[in-house]
Amino acid sequence: MTQKDITFVADFLTEHFNEAPELYNRKGKYFNVERVGQYLKDEDDDLVSPPNTEGNQWFSFLKDSTHLKESPLLFPYYPEKSLHFVKRQMEGVIDQCLQKPADVIGKSVHQAVCMCLYKISQSEDSTPQLFKLPFLWNDKTSNLHYVLFTMLEDSISKIHILRRHTDTSRSVSNGILAVEFGNFLNNSINESSDSRCYSCLDAHFYDDETVTVVLKENVQQEGKERVLAQLPLS
Protein backbone atom coordinates (compact mmCIF):
# COMPACT_ATOMS: atom_id res chain seq x y z
CA MET A 1 0.00 0.00 0.00
CA THR A 2 1.17 3.51 -0.73
CA GLN A 3 1.15 6.28 1.84
CA LYS A 4 -1.78 7.79 -0.07
CA ASP A 5 -3.81 4.57 0.44
CA ILE A 6 -3.04 4.52 4.16
CA THR A 7 -4.02 8.17 4.52
CA PHE A 8 -7.29 7.53 2.68
CA VAL A 9 -8.20 4.61 5.00
CA ALA A 10 -7.22 6.60 8.08
CA ASP A 11 -9.38 9.53 7.01
CA PHE A 12 -12.30 7.18 6.37
CA LEU A 13 -12.01 5.60 9.84
CA THR A 14 -11.65 9.01 11.47
CA GLU A 15 -14.76 10.35 9.75
CA HIS A 16 -17.11 7.38 10.10
CA PHE A 17 -16.03 5.51 13.23
CA ASN A 18 -15.78 8.22 15.86
CA GLU A 19 -17.23 7.25 19.20
CA ALA A 20 -20.90 8.18 19.45
CA PRO A 21 -22.06 8.29 23.10
CA GLU A 22 -25.66 8.88 21.99
CA LEU A 23 -25.65 5.36 20.54
CA TYR A 24 -24.35 3.57 23.65
CA ASN A 25 -27.84 2.50 24.70
CA ARG A 26 -28.29 0.61 21.42
CA LYS A 27 -26.99 -2.93 21.56
CA GLY A 28 -23.86 -3.41 19.49
CA LYS A 29 -24.10 0.07 17.94
CA TYR A 30 -21.25 2.01 19.52
CA PHE A 31 -19.90 3.65 16.38
CA ASN A 32 -21.28 5.58 13.43
CA VAL A 33 -21.54 3.14 10.53
CA GLU A 34 -20.61 4.14 7.01
CA ARG A 35 -23.48 6.39 5.96
CA VAL A 36 -24.06 4.89 2.52
CA GLY A 37 -23.91 1.21 3.46
CA GLN A 38 -26.63 1.49 6.09
CA TYR A 39 -29.20 2.31 3.41
CA LEU A 40 -28.40 -0.87 1.49
CA LYS A 41 -28.86 -3.40 4.29
CA ASP A 42 -31.77 -5.75 3.64
CA GLU A 43 -33.34 -5.50 7.08
CA ASP A 44 -36.24 -3.79 8.79
CA ASP A 45 -34.22 -2.27 11.63
CA ASP A 46 -34.04 1.49 11.92
CA LEU A 47 -31.00 3.27 10.49
CA VAL A 48 -28.18 3.85 12.95
CA SER A 49 -27.47 7.29 11.50
CA PRO A 50 -30.71 8.56 9.95
CA PRO A 51 -30.45 11.59 7.66
CA ASN A 52 -31.02 15.08 8.99
CA THR A 53 -34.11 16.40 7.21
CA GLU A 54 -34.07 19.76 8.95
CA GLY A 55 -34.21 22.53 6.37
CA ASN A 56 -35.21 20.19 3.55
CA GLN A 57 -37.31 22.27 1.13
CA TRP A 58 -39.57 19.37 0.12
CA PHE A 59 -40.46 18.44 3.70
CA SER A 60 -41.04 22.08 4.55
CA PHE A 61 -43.30 22.43 1.52
CA LEU A 62 -45.36 19.35 2.52
CA LYS A 63 -45.60 20.46 6.13
CA ASP A 64 -47.00 23.85 5.13
CA SER A 65 -49.44 22.44 2.56
CA THR A 66 -52.77 21.38 4.03
CA HIS A 67 -53.80 19.65 0.78
CA LEU A 68 -50.64 17.61 0.23
CA LYS A 69 -49.82 16.75 3.82
CA GLU A 70 -52.30 13.85 3.96
CA SER A 71 -52.60 13.21 0.24
CA PRO A 72 -52.91 9.51 -0.69
CA LEU A 73 -51.13 10.28 -3.97
CA LEU A 74 -47.82 10.87 -2.21
CA PHE A 75 -45.77 7.85 -1.25
CA PRO A 76 -44.98 8.01 2.49
CA TYR A 77 -41.41 8.74 3.52
CA TYR A 78 -39.58 6.57 6.05
CA PRO A 79 -36.49 8.54 7.18
CA GLU A 80 -35.52 5.85 9.70
CA LYS A 81 -35.57 2.93 7.24
CA SER A 82 -33.18 1.53 4.61
CA LEU A 83 -33.82 1.54 0.88
CA HIS A 84 -34.59 -2.19 0.96
CA PHE A 85 -37.46 -1.53 3.37
CA VAL A 86 -38.81 1.29 1.21
CA LYS A 87 -38.46 -0.90 -1.90
CA ARG A 88 -40.57 -3.66 -0.35
CA GLN A 89 -43.21 -1.14 0.70
CA MET A 90 -43.37 0.34 -2.80
CA GLU A 91 -43.53 -3.09 -4.45
CA GLY A 92 -46.50 -3.97 -2.25
CA VAL A 93 -48.34 -0.81 -3.27
CA ILE A 94 -47.57 -1.34 -6.96
CA ASP A 95 -48.71 -4.98 -6.84
CA GLN A 96 -51.96 -3.88 -5.23
CA CYS A 97 -52.50 -1.24 -7.93
CA LEU A 98 -51.88 -3.70 -10.76
CA GLN A 99 -53.94 -6.58 -9.40
CA LYS A 100 -57.35 -5.23 -10.45
CA PRO A 101 -56.32 -4.33 -14.03
CA ALA A 102 -54.64 -7.73 -14.35
CA ASP A 103 -57.85 -9.49 -13.33
CA VAL A 104 -60.01 -7.45 -15.69
CA ILE A 105 -57.64 -7.76 -18.67
CA GLY A 106 -57.06 -11.45 -18.02
CA LYS A 107 -60.77 -12.21 -18.08
CA SER A 108 -61.27 -10.25 -21.32
CA VAL A 109 -58.56 -12.08 -23.30
CA HIS A 110 -59.66 -15.02 -25.42
CA GLN A 111 -58.15 -17.11 -28.19
CA ALA A 112 -59.01 -15.85 -31.66
CA VAL A 113 -57.23 -18.44 -33.77
CA CYS A 114 -55.04 -21.52 -33.35
CA MET A 115 -52.36 -22.23 -35.93
CA CYS A 116 -50.00 -25.23 -35.83
CA LEU A 117 -46.46 -24.11 -36.73
CA TYR A 118 -44.51 -27.32 -36.10
CA LYS A 119 -44.68 -30.65 -34.29
CA ILE A 120 -42.05 -32.31 -32.14
CA SER A 121 -41.58 -35.88 -31.01
CA GLN A 122 -43.07 -36.71 -27.62
CA SER A 123 -40.03 -38.82 -26.77
CA GLU A 124 -37.58 -35.93 -26.86
CA ASP A 125 -36.19 -35.00 -23.44
CA SER A 126 -35.57 -31.35 -24.24
CA THR A 127 -37.73 -29.33 -26.59
CA PRO A 128 -35.62 -27.53 -29.22
CA GLN A 129 -36.13 -23.82 -29.70
CA LEU A 130 -37.62 -23.56 -33.16
CA PHE A 131 -39.41 -20.23 -32.82
CA LYS A 132 -37.15 -17.17 -32.93
CA LEU A 133 -37.23 -13.36 -32.79
CA PRO A 134 -40.98 -12.67 -32.86
CA PHE A 135 -41.51 -8.98 -33.58
CA LEU A 136 -44.95 -7.37 -33.33
CA TRP A 137 -46.24 -4.47 -35.42
CA ASN A 138 -49.63 -2.76 -35.47
CA ASP A 139 -50.72 -0.99 -38.65
CA LYS A 140 -53.26 1.48 -37.27
CA THR A 141 -54.17 2.75 -40.72
CA SER A 142 -55.31 -0.66 -41.97
CA ASN A 143 -56.21 -2.08 -38.55
CA LEU A 144 -53.84 -5.01 -38.99
CA HIS A 145 -51.56 -6.88 -36.58
CA TYR A 146 -48.29 -8.33 -37.90
CA VAL A 147 -45.91 -10.85 -36.35
CA LEU A 148 -42.46 -11.46 -37.85
CA PHE A 149 -40.63 -14.64 -36.83
CA THR A 150 -38.23 -17.30 -38.08
CA MET A 151 -38.28 -21.06 -37.68
CA LEU A 152 -34.88 -22.51 -36.85
CA GLU A 153 -33.28 -25.64 -38.27
CA ASP A 154 -35.93 -26.44 -40.84
CA SER A 155 -35.96 -23.12 -42.68
CA ILE A 156 -33.26 -20.73 -41.50
CA SER A 157 -33.34 -18.87 -44.81
CA LYS A 158 -37.02 -17.95 -44.43
CA ILE A 159 -38.80 -15.25 -42.50
CA HIS A 160 -42.49 -15.77 -41.71
CA ILE A 161 -45.08 -12.99 -41.63
CA LEU A 162 -48.35 -13.54 -39.78
CA ARG A 163 -51.11 -11.01 -40.42
CA ARG A 164 -54.37 -10.69 -38.50
CA HIS A 165 -57.13 -8.09 -38.45
CA THR A 166 -57.57 -6.22 -35.17
CA ASP A 167 -61.25 -7.10 -35.39
CA THR A 168 -61.09 -10.83 -34.57
CA SER A 169 -64.36 -11.45 -36.39
CA ARG A 170 -62.76 -10.45 -39.70
CA SER A 171 -60.13 -12.35 -41.68
CA VAL A 172 -57.49 -11.20 -44.14
CA SER A 173 -56.09 -12.89 -47.23
CA ASN A 174 -52.73 -14.64 -46.94
CA GLY A 175 -52.91 -14.70 -43.15
CA ILE A 176 -49.43 -16.22 -42.98
CA LEU A 177 -46.69 -16.46 -45.58
CA ALA A 178 -42.94 -17.06 -45.74
CA VAL A 179 -40.28 -15.08 -47.58
CA GLU A 180 -37.20 -17.09 -48.56
CA PHE A 181 -33.91 -15.27 -49.11
CA GLY A 182 -31.72 -18.21 -50.12
CA ASN A 183 -29.19 -17.20 -52.78
CA PHE A 184 -31.05 -14.23 -54.22
CA LEU A 185 -27.93 -12.04 -53.86
CA ASN A 186 -25.82 -14.16 -56.22
CA ASN A 187 -24.06 -12.08 -58.80
CA SER A 188 -24.60 -14.50 -61.66
CA ILE A 189 -26.57 -17.58 -62.54
CA ASN A 190 -23.29 -19.49 -62.73
CA GLU A 191 -22.77 -19.37 -58.98
CA SER A 192 -23.77 -22.54 -57.18
CA SER A 193 -26.97 -22.45 -55.17
CA ASP A 194 -25.07 -23.12 -51.94
CA SER A 195 -22.21 -20.67 -52.42
CA ARG A 196 -24.05 -17.50 -51.38
CA CYS A 197 -26.96 -18.63 -49.23
CA TYR A 198 -28.27 -16.21 -46.60
CA SER A 199 -30.20 -16.61 -43.37
CA CYS A 200 -32.04 -14.00 -41.31
CA LEU A 201 -30.34 -12.69 -38.15
CA ASP A 202 -33.01 -10.15 -37.24
CA ALA A 203 -36.13 -8.52 -38.68
CA HIS A 204 -38.24 -5.54 -37.71
CA PHE A 205 -40.91 -3.42 -39.32
CA TYR A 206 -39.45 -0.10 -40.51
CA ASP A 207 -42.90 1.38 -41.16
CA ASP A 208 -46.32 0.14 -42.29
CA GLU A 209 -45.02 -0.70 -45.79
CA THR A 210 -41.42 -1.75 -45.18
CA VAL A 211 -39.61 -4.57 -43.35
CA THR A 212 -35.94 -4.27 -42.39
CA VAL A 213 -33.91 -7.49 -42.20
CA VAL A 214 -30.32 -8.30 -41.26
CA LEU A 215 -28.99 -11.22 -43.33
CA LYS A 216 -25.95 -13.42 -42.68
CA GLU A 217 -24.03 -15.37 -45.28
CA ASN A 218 -24.06 -19.09 -44.47
CA VAL A 219 -20.38 -19.90 -44.80
CA GLN A 220 -17.94 -21.43 -42.35
CA GLN A 221 -14.96 -19.14 -42.79
CA GLU A 222 -14.38 -15.89 -40.93
CA GLY A 223 -15.61 -12.59 -42.33
CA LYS A 224 -19.15 -13.68 -43.06
CA GLU A 225 -20.97 -11.12 -45.12
CA ARG A 226 -23.79 -9.16 -43.45
CA VAL A 227 -26.52 -7.47 -45.47
CA LEU A 228 -29.02 -4.87 -44.28
CA ALA A 229 -32.05 -5.03 -46.58
CA GLN A 230 -35.26 -3.00 -46.81
CA LEU A 231 -38.10 -5.12 -48.20
CA PRO A 232 -41.44 -3.66 -49.33
CA LEU A 233 -44.25 -5.53 -47.61
CA SER A 234 -46.16 -5.76 -50.87
Automatic annotation (TrEMBL):
Taxonomic superkingdom = Eukaryota
Entry-linked InterPro entries: APC4, APC4_C
What Pfam families does this protein's entry cite? WD40_APC4_C-half
- Is the DNA damage keyword given for this protein? no
Which GO CC terms are listed, alphabetically?
Answer: anaphase-promoting complex; nuclear periphery
Keywords linked to the UniProt accession: Cell cycle, Cell division, Mitosis, Ubl conjugation pathway
Give yes or no: UniProt keyword Nucleotide-binding: no
A biological process (GO) of this protein is: cell division
| Domain Anaphase-promoting complex subunit 4 C-terminal half WD40: residue ranges | 136-234
Protein name as annotated = APC4 protein
- Classification of source organism: Eukaryota, Metazoa, Chordata, Craniata, Vertebrata
Name of the gene encoding the protein in the UniProt record? Anapc4
